Amino acid sequence: MKRRSTKLVPEMGAICLVTLVFMFIVPLAVASKENGENSLSTYIVHLKKPKGVFAQAVDLDGWYRSFLPVTIPGQRTQMVFSYQNVVTGFAAKLTAEEAEAMKRKEGIKSVWPEKVYSLHTTHSPDFMGLQQNLGFWNQSNYGRGVIIGVLDTGITPGHPSFSDEGMPPPPAKWKGKCVFEGGCNNKLIGARSFVEGEVGPPADEEGHGTHTASTAGGNFVKGANVFGNANGTASGMAPLAHLAMYKVCGAGCSESAILAAMDAAVEDGVDVLSLSLGGGSIPFYMDSIALGAFTAIQKGVFVSCSAGNEGPSYGTLSNEAPWILTVGASTTDRSIAAVPKLGNGLTFDGESLYQPNDFPSMLLPLVYSGANGKAASAFCAPGSLKDVDVKGKVVLCERGGDIGRIDKGQEVKDNGGAAMILMNDKLNGFSTIADPHVLPATHVGYETGLSIQKYINSTMNPTATIIFKGTVLGKQTAPEVTSFSSRGPSLQSFGILKPDIIGPGVSILAAWPVSVENKTNTNSTFNMISGTSMSCPHLSGIAALLKSSHPDWSPAAIKSAIMTTASLVNLGGNTIVDETNTTADIFATGAGHVNPSKANDPGLIYDIQPDDYIPYLCGLNYTDEEVGTIVQQTVNCSSESIIAEAELNYPSFSILLAESGGSQTYTRTVTNVGPASSSYTYEVFVPTGVDVSVKPEEIAFTEVNQKQTYSVTFSRQKNISLPFSQGLLKWVSAQHDVNTPIVAIFE
Ligand SMILES: *[C@@H]1O[C@H](CO)[C@@H](O)[C@H](O)[C@H]1NC(C)=O
Ligand SMILES: *[C@@H]1O[C@H](CO)[C@@H](O)[C@H](O)[C@H]1NC(C)=O
Ligand SMILES: *[C@@H]1O[C@H](CO)[C@@H](O)[C@H](O)[C@H]1NC(C)=O
Ligand SMILES: *[C@@H]1O[C@H](CO)[C@@H](O)[C@H](O)[C@H]1NC(C)=O
Ligand SMILES: *[C@@H]1O[C@H](CO)[C@@H](O)[C@H](O)[C@H]1NC(C)=O
Ligand SMILES: *[C@@H]1O[C@H](CO)[C@@H](O)[C@H](O)[C@H]1NC(C)=O
Ligand SMILES: *[C@@H]1O[C@H](CO)[C@@H](O)[C@H](O)[C@H]1NC(C)=O
Ligand SMILES: *[C@@H]1O[C@H](CO)[C@@H](O)[C@H](O)[C@H]1NC(C)=O
Ligand SMILES: *[C@@H]1O[C@H](CO)[C@@H](O)[C@H](O)[C@H]1NC(C)=O
């Protein structure tokens, strides 16, 4: 298939720093100095599983230490983390030579320099149909008793989102620690830092972790708003769930810390893990998030991760393992409207979180910052407007050029500009974001930007103003897939459709450590930020609700319920669109937009037991050792009944069809979680260029939890020139629609 190589330029800025993700994996070893003691780097060391079983953690630790190079005692600390659950191995500070020597030792599987992973809502519960005292929220008891572990930048105790009003004490199984003195309560039950050199509590200097944690499980807070906008009652998706923060991100999110945090979280007894960070596409046996997540699902812990912010190009996902829920980002029906009005009377849609109430409605001179022909000026890069006359004017700046959206406004403001119109580049199309700008501003789509440029060209004295209209709800085209949301296919496993799901990730209001308006007299501080980092915790919270209402469901069952009930249309009943304002494809939406209430009652589920992944992993042609690293047991692929990737009992189909290949048949097993006596017949929305046949015609159940198997045969028609096409297999009963998305990739 064709993959565009264009990369969305990361936009660094005060706010977007954390939310727009860079997927590059930088081995720390390269970054460190190459001399003396400074040449020490953290390495992740995987060992062959020992024959015997260690009675105690301390024995395992002792065995790990026996692999460390001999140094003068007390000279330096080599061991960084000694892993107990997620992998057989440890993280240690080594020189490059020591690491090389260690690789050759008997019993060592692999030694690699640790990677650095990057960090990738008053209204969203309501938008997703969750209402107080009604339906699913009530039925799931708001996630009561469920523990959500969040790996992030830390947390802000004392914030009203983390108040424990109405919260029961943590369940007896909870073994975690909370190191905030006086800051912990029945809401925030765990808080530790794994960041190197940080001994104190996991304070959030960044904001990202406070925001994601409150989105997943924040308590109700009345009158939450930013600059008065989006005012309402804020709450997380699971407002009565407990939260545990595992701080893993300081300057970056180090792999050794992520692994250590997941190791601790599964031991502590979390039920759901939420990771709004990622490291790009990495083979599962080398991806510490995938490794940690596998151990988590073995213990029944659900793992939700952000898909990445590298869209809209294809093949840009992070966190692709099939045992992880991979979450893309979409808009909500709320916009914080800032309408640009031109001298010719034309008005357009635009957004800004900062809404000054004293901005004059009179027309001001309008200027295009790039009129001097300089790219830096067009992007309103820092220092680029020194020689441009912007004083008292409305300045049209272009998005991109590796400059933060808010920083562009700062440059306009610093040079005396009155306001900014920020126009998208072509790639970002119609996707706009309500940012906390530093001056009167509006963010508009690419075509609107072109119209404004055209107007500027058409007149000697172009003028414009911005009309601030505040919070506007009910946008019928919501949800839309936003431009930055990373897209499939999964580069590690073409036979699994990814992302799995989309959820709210644009202009999300949630808790923040400080006031972005410089108000100091309140702890009730909020901010609105965007990213798949924001959509991930929405799904983590929803998984907690499902866990609460269906304690016996496995992580795969919860995921299946979320996927097969997802919505394929927007509020207006039309297909979901992307940043081009045309129908979003399946590599953007996955199974569609999460519908929590429907997920609570899916009718059928596609279940997967942890050991079912072994034949799948062998089918990826991983070595026995690589599969063993993931599943933490000795594996012999030649004695497994290896399956093709697409044969995994996944709630979607991703089928590679070669020109000359024959037909391919896959089976699926569904479990009845609806009424005991129910029967389903199918409808197929056939992907263009593919013949699909399904057997049997009907599947019937007489008991709850009864399983039935069906098979689907796919064959490619002649003369297909598409890269891929998509369809849907729908099992329909009197009460339920079980949607199973299909993508056919033409090789
Ligand atoms: C809410 O759920 C409880 C049980 O958890 C039930 O007794 C009550 O009737 C429900 N309330 C509504 C309004 O559905
Ligand atoms: C704000 O939070 C701190 C804890 O960080 C707490 O001591 C203080 O009482 C809180 N203030 C208000 C007004 O709730
Ligand atoms: C937010 O809404 C509440 C309740 O409707 C109201 O009392 C409060 O003044 C509002 N705050 C702002 C900043 O609009
Ligand atoms: C505006 O004029 C400039 C300079 O002549 C030209 O390069 C640009 O394409 C024009 N823009 C539009 C949208 O017409
Ligand atoms: C907040 O206050 C500080 C110090 O008074 C000031 O430097 C900063 O610009 C203010 N920030 C905003 C967003 O107003
Ligand atoms: C998107 O497309 C629809 C239908 O094609 C159209 O009605 C709508 O105006 C478009 N939206 C924008 C922002 O141009
Ligand atoms: C694994 O190897 C077999 C045999 O070479 C090949 O047919 C198959 O496509 C490979 N699978 C993957 C996922 O690469
Ligand atoms: C793996 O299984 C095959 C087939 O059962 C067997 O021949 C082979 O000896 C096994 N390999 C190991 C290392 O146990
Ligand atoms: C397939 O396309 C080729 C070239 O366009 C054409 O010659 C041939 O007749 C087509 N075959 C079928 C079955 O349509």
From TrEMBL:
GO terms for biological process: proteolysis. The lineage of its organism: Eukaryota, Viridiplantae, Streptophyta, Embryophyta, Tracheophyta. Keywords: Glycoprotein, Hydrolase, Protease, Secreted, Serine protease, Signal. Residues 365-452 form the PA domain. Residues 143-573 form the Peptidase S8/S53 domain. The gene is LOC107930041. This is Subtilisin-like protease. InterPro entries: PA_dom_sf, PA_domain, Peptidase_S8/S53_dom, Peptidase_S8/S53_dom_sf, Peptidase_S8_Asp-AS, Peptidase_S8_subtilisin-rel, Peptidases_S8_3, S8pro/Inhibitor_I9. Its main location: secreted. Residues 1-31 form the signal peptide. Belongs to the peptidase S8 family. It comes from Gossypium hirsutum (Upland cotton).
